[in-house]
Design brief:
Layout: H1 2-9, H2 11-23, H3 34-51, H4 59-72, H5 77-83, H6 87-101, H7 106-117, H8 128-139
Helix pairs in contact: 1-4, 3-4, 3-8, 4-7, 5-6, 6-7, 7-8
Amino acid sequence: MERVNAIVRHPIFVAELEQLGKLEADRVFCRHDAAHLLSVARIAYIFYLESKSSFADAESQMKELIYATAYLHDIGRARQYIDGTPHEQGSACIASVILPECGFSEGESELILDAILSHRTSGGEKPGFAGIIFRADKLSRHCFDCAAITQCDWEIKNMDVQY
């Protein structure tokens, strides 16, 4: 997980997450903080383990790809708040700078960027890696325990613990 730790220590990642925290400080809905990113990573890894499928050559490599994607999938959300850039596009743009600097190959980066770009809508239609990131992101919220549930327009409310 050396490369994932390089991501969470990367100055751009740190600055974007800090800015996002400030922008969402008064948000009554789910936040896109480090806890959310880690939750997505853990759920996606469970999906991978349960699938008994091989998306990559080595399980440790797959774990790193999942965690890298989860940590980067919402990192562009501050740009959405500031200038209206869809956050999946902002996240992919930021990730495309961070990934090579943290040791990810071009092929790994392409896989990660595809999952980031499709985590909002089209990921549910994709099999494999992008699909597990999409599903994990949707299941990462605890709607059953949210004070703002009646105000929320989230399309998939999680009213039961699944993962």
